[in-house]
Amino acid sequence: MTAPRANLPPLSLHVPEPRFRPGDEADFSDVVVPPAGSGRRPDTAAAADSFHELAYGLVRVLDDMGHAVGPWDPRLDADAKRKMLRSMALTRAFDERMFRAQRQGKTSFYMKSTGEEAVSVAATMALASDDMCFPSYRQQGILITRGYPLVTMMNQIYSNRGDPLQGRQLPIMYSAKDHGFFSISGNLATQYPQAVGWAMASAAKGDSRIAATWCGEGSTAEGDFHSALTFATVYKAPVILNIVNNQWAISSFSGFAGAEATTFAARAIGYGIAGLRVDGNDALAVYAATQWAAERARTNQGPTLIEHFTYRAEGHSTSDDPTAYRSAGEPNAWPLGDPIRRLKDHLIATGEWDDARQQAMDLDLAEQVKAAQKEAEKNGILGHGMHQPFETMFEGVFEHMPWHLKEQSEQMMAERKAAGI
Ligand SMILES: Cc1ncc(C[n+]2csc(CCOP(=O)(O)OP(=O)(O)O)c2C)c(N)n1
Ligand SMILES: [Mg+2]
């Protein structure tokens, strides 16, 4: 090693450090939360470089009194808002039940979306039912909003006889082509280039369907994220690129993906893509932003990148213990509140809902989830025998099974027979 030059300061690296660790008091008073209704809503035909400030602001509709205000208010009727509330509450009830099922040993793994329900549910409501979604593992609200059977979701989680994926995917990594829900992959951010490619194909065929994709803020550090943005901007692909900034990537805080330097929505600017930063716990803002981005995509204005500023209120997965690395006070100190409570308060403030109806709804949803679980468990749970024929492990990859797989499958069956199993 050559000696450093004495007349220059030694170089050093900046290593990000989260602000609060276990035992610290969480204080988010310096997080800038602009008043609801304060940001402008450009025309959907406006050039992407004419509203850069929206990548640094925060689109918000619901104010502290529960009123919907400003140019982004999507002016939904009460029925649509009640459906939105119900789908978010159902997603939470489903998460609660499946989390417990994992703790009871009925499945090996589960991931909740607590606190982030608006990001999947409200966005799905703003899309057409045949638009194609390329989610990460934390947007189960898409399937729930589109009415996918809860029993089938649970069958997948239990990897049982009713699992349409025959136990070959990790629990919660659903795939539902007929519900416009692309197979979830454990490899972070692969869904981004896939969504852009699908959107490009849709346009190349002269179709009218658009694509939407979601990834976590941590996943934006993947190369796939950046190559997807390049393709999206070059070809003006009809795609909505969602970043769910829930502050954490397992135990790594958002600073490791670049959050100390700028916003995630600002990634859009370097690519010449329309960028919006949205209050992800405000279901009406998520709806409005998605509707705006969908209109841009449908009218060939190109892609929109939306950062949903939110907070992962619980652990990363059932394999995680967040008390080991973050302050226990963070979820409560988080300034944007809870998405379900905020929409509920809004509906009550406008006289379209009340506490008694909320309670009845929660009871009804809990019963619905419980009944679905009972049904799914008839098809088997973890550790209670083999739920799929052994040879299925070789099937489903190739349209016609190649000779070497046939050979391996036959060998396995012969060995099992010889061993008397
Ligand atoms: C390519 C790749 N690298 C690492 C992992 C391990 N891993 C799984 S989830 C995760 C954190 C992702 O965080 P984020 O993108 O913020 O999404 P969130 O879990 O917060 O929704 C990591 C590192 C992986 N699955 N794939
Ligand atoms: Mg995250």
Automatic annotation (TrEMBL):
GO terms for biological process: branched-chain amino acid catabolic process. Its cofactor is thiamine diphosphate. One of its GO terms (molecular function) is branched-chain 2-oxo acid dehydrogenase activity. It catalyses: N(6)-[(R)-lipoyl]-L-lysyl-[protein] + 3-methyl-2-oxobutanoate + H(+) = N(6)-[(R)-S(8)-2-methylpropanoyldihydrolipoyl]-L-lysyl-[protein] + CO2. Residues 86-381 form the Dehydrogenase E1 component domain. Residues 9-48 form the 2-oxoisovalerate dehydrogenase E1 alpha subunit N-terminal domain. Keywords: Oxidoreductase, Thiamine pyrophosphate. This is 2-oxoisovalerate dehydrogenase subunit alpha. It comes from Sphingomonas hengshuiensis.
